[in-house]
Amino acid sequence: MLHRRTVDDVMTEEVVTLRPDTPIHEVATLLDANDIVAAPVVDDDGAPIGVVSASDVLRHETGMPDPQGRHGNDERAWGKARARTAGALMSSPVFTARADWTIPRAARELRRRHVKQLPVVGDDGLLTGIVSRSDLLDAFIRSDVEIRSEVEQDVLGRILGLDEGTVAVEVHDGVVTLRGHVPEPRLVPVVVGLCQGVDGVVSVDAHLAATR
Known about the structure:
alpha/beta; CBS-domain; Histidine-containing Protein, Chain: A; 2 domains; three-stranded mixed sheet; 9 helices; CBS domain; BON_dom
């Protein structure tokens, strides 16, 4: 099978975490010192129970439910504005990802949840890493050389078993152009489909003919 990169391939394993009793001023310091926009709050076992973002800290510092002072009748929002610890300020429940998720699945979850990052947990529910939008984007921003190598070696060679030079591969800005011959007509859509499944491929332009 064609190897599809997963969350495990792109996530950050060394995660800056907070405890429920971490004071707000320490939260702000940690976020700033590590140049991150959010950090998970974990319990004594290391399981994520919430997330505190820079926006949460900003709302707290303004003393308002949000920086513009909206939602002024929301008691929960006002409670966060008066919070003194990460546990009182965090957003909960926390949405998490799994290390074996594919990149597209993680991207869809980020979009569906309207968040910028997801803590990654193992089978035991404990934190193993964190994956962000930028991590997922990096997985798709690959050089043309990397894409061509994967198409030639994995798709054409290892999976389809075609002889080297049977199909010429060119890649420009993620667009894969194929020229050559395949043993039979039914393989043409197979080759195209497999190439489209390679991370970083924008489109496939196939000029392939069957030898029989």
